[in-house]
Every structure is written in C-alpha cells, then in structure tokens.
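Sequence only, no structure available. Ideas?
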Amino acid sequence: MTRISYVCKVSCFFLAGLFLFKPAQSQSLIEVLKGQSIILQDGTTLYHDFYKPSNKETFPIILIRTPYQKEGIELFGNFFAEEGFGVVIQDVRGKYSSKGMFIPFFKEYEDGLQTLDWIQKQTWFDGNVGMWGSSYLGFSAMILSKSNHPALKSIFNLSGWIDGTEISETDGAFHQLLVIPWLLFEGQKTRKSLKGMDLDEIFLHTPLVDVMPDIEFKDNDGLHKLEEITRMYQNYPHEQSAVPTMHVNGWFDFTLKASLNDYQMLASKASSTQKMILGPWYHNQLYHENPMLGDYELPENGEANMQWMLDEAKDWFKNTLIDSYKTEPNLIRYYVLFKDTWNETEIWPPKNSVEANYYLSDNNLTENTPTNSNSIFRGFTFDPHNPVPTTGGANFHTFLEKMGIRDQQDVESREDVLTFSTDPFSTDKTFAGNHSVTLYVSTTGIGTDFTAKLTKVDSAGVSWNLLDAITRIEPGALKLPVVKVTLNLGDMAFQIKKGESIRLQVSSSNFPKYNRNPNSGVESILAKELKPAQQRIYFSNQYPSHIKLSLLQN
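Reply:
I predicted one. Tokens follow.
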C-alpha cells in the first residue's frame, strides 16, 4: 500500500471539531488537578487533567480521550464534575502534552484499555466509567465497546464511528475537501494554522499526490500494520458489545453513514441498549450554536445547542452510571425536515416506510415503470477541467459557504448537469430512511465518475439540495457498453409539501468535495492529464434508471 493510500484511509480520523471552549470558572465544589500522568506498559506517558467533586470520596468517571488538546474542552470537565462525576480528559499518544508518536487511530484501542485499567485501580473510583466523545473522540470511545472491560458501563457518542472508510473515500472517490485540510491542520503533534494557504490551488493541482500533506513517521510501523488495522475495523465484532450507547448525529453530518451503520449493527447484534438522536445538523453544529443550515434557518425545535447536548449527556450518564440501570428497548428519535417534527422508531428505516420508485423519463421523474423498449438516453460532456462546483451538502464544516441546504439554480443551469423532476405533489409526502439512485450509464472514458443529487423544488420553483452521492467506476467495471451503477444517497427524513416536487441532478463531479476523475484510467491522485468524456444516462424498460426513496405511510 502506498503512502498516499494510507493518507486517504486514515485522514477520516482527524475529524473532531475546530473548537476550543472557554473554561467555566471552577466552583468550590470542584477540584481540578492539572497535568496528571499515566505510564503505559511500553513506557509511554500520557497526560490528563482530572476534575472531581470535592464533596465526595468516590464517584463514577467520565473519560474523554482527545487529539485536540485537553485544555480546549475544560467546559466538559467542569460541567460533569458539577454534576457529581469525576472527569479524566486525556491527550492521546503523541498529541500536545502526551509523549510518544501520533499515528492516527493506531493505538487508541490499546491506550484506551490501559487508561481504563489505571482508573480501575484508583481509590476514588466507584466502579463505573462512561466515555464521552465527538468525532475522533467518539471513535476513541466506540472502538472500546467490544472490550467488555469491567469498568466501562456507558458511552455517549456524538458523530463518532468505528469503521470510517466511507468517510474519507466515498465509493472509491477521494473526499479531499475533508482529508487535505485536516491532515494539514492536525497531522502533527500540535495544531498548525492554515492561514495563508491557497487550498483551491492545492485541490486543482495535478498530480494531486505532489501536494498531499505527509504524516511524518519516524519509521514505517504504521504503514506495515495498516492492512491489519483496516480489516479489524471493517469486521468489527459488534455482537461482543455490552455497553449501553447513546448515538447523536445529523442529516448533514459527513460521519452520518458510518455512525448510523454502527447503531444498526449494535442494535441488531449487541446485548446492550442502543439509542440514537438524528437531528437536522451538520458536523459540530452543536458547538457553533448556529441556527443556519446553509441558506435554511432551522426552526426553534431543530436548532443545535450546546446546553441541550450537555444535558442529554448528563441524563444519559446519570441513568447508566448512577441510577439502577435496566436494559431498555432500542430507540431512534429523528427530526423530519420541513415538517419540523420529531418522530420515534425502534428500527431504521421506520416500520411504516415503503419503497417509492420514481423512474427517469426524458426530463421527468414518474412513478410509472418504463414501457419503451428503445434505448433512450440523455448525454453530457464531463470535462474535469471544468468540474461542477460543490454547492451545499454534508460537507466539512470549516467551509460553511459550502455547507447545508443551498439554492441550486447556478448548478442546474450548467450543460453538464442533467435534471429530472416529478410533477408537483397533490398531497404532502413524508420520506424517512435510506435513499438511493440506480442509473444505467455509458462513457467514453476508460474510468469515470457519476454523481447524483436529490433536491426539493419549492412552490416558487427554487431547487434546494437534500442528499448527494458519487460513485467511481474503475476501468475493469466498464466491460459492457451500458453499465448499471447504484449510488447510495444516504439517510434522511424530510417532507415534500403539496405543490412542491422532487428533482434528481445527474452529473460526474462535485468539486472540491471529491477529487476529479481524469477519465484516463490512471489513479486519480496520480494523474497528470485530465481528459473529457462523453457520458450517457439511459432510461427504458431495458434500462430502468430510477430513484428509490423510503416513503412513510400514515
């Protein structure tokens, strides 16, 4: 495996937010011990700050392991300590105060277990540990769920995951809008400023490999073991988990697919209670306390709020660590966009959901199955020198101008973006679950990409993005003149009201979110030359291209 392949794989683990919290003033009921240390079995010293209630001799512990500097999340230490918990906030190996070499995610399982062992031996420990984490911090907690460590009794997982392959490499396409900035920013012992860097120039450079940030390994140990680590997380034994877990994520969070997959696997295989909250938010919006989801302002009952998240975590830990916890049914609480209500379901998709297929026909989407036997198609030229710009979506939250729900007028005016629309709906329709697109395609490229985007067209005719997807077709998959491809749009709950319609955009790029396909068959990050390709989308009874939505029945 090349260094670049390694970089593409590991970069999704640099995902916790760009946030430093102002510490709350410690009250007299709290004692804070800074710079405490744990010596691991290999001699590496990890440092943590310890927050504890001063009026108790023993207490449950909240463990938080971060690569983003322990001092930056003092707010959590103060908050949980005021609620009667001891809090250990630890810099992970090789980051900030902790010693050793930082290889992303490489040692988090072993180091986390040894930290739990250390906590278990302390005189102030009452026998119960809960782990809190968001993004990378959530990953550090989630991978320990299989350990069945006797001290670990609960996890609160905000936008974390176990297997993050799809986060950095979506169906073969390199998620460069996330990967490159994060490696530049956090791929070393301390945070590096991106000020003055021209990221547009980096994204456009060919070959992309020349400008990829490097991780400065002292040796190749991480590279040699990468295949082993990747297999371990892709085949994670969810059935071994006995840790009750609360998962929180959002419809416009780029970690949603991985996080929701973990919930579904644990809910179906693990013996422990799994609960999930799915809001309308983007990644780390809870910290920003921003009511705007792109151009769309969330109503009050959908707004992201730091205090809300802290209270949810507090209640979860009190229930699972302090009270006499009893196993409860699995449950998902989810927000329906544009209906602006919260629903509950025991399984996902909800039991009362059914498949609703809309077939491509000329410029239209129709519920009628195609009857025409002719090979009807629409085509466009995909020129990677002039890619379709990223406009809205579940994108990296540093680039707020590309985030969330955005007006699609400029995108849909391009000749290389095909659109297919339903007639305006005669009644309100609510959709909740996983949504996908199946296309029958051809290309003159040796390899190429196809993209799909689902939008809502309001009563004024304005198109607003909801979900998008990409698939990278490698040369070996183009053996037939027409190829069937399925693009997983992802999961969302939303309502289309009477007089509104849905629209499908089809193209071959979403830039700079994903790197450009050169259409030449050369690996995309190694390609020096980019070539145009002629693309076709077919629709007939032989090639029934369609969008499959999960429709809620009354």
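Residues 353-552 form a domain with the Jelly Rolls fold (CATH 2.60.120.260).
Hope that gets you unstuck.
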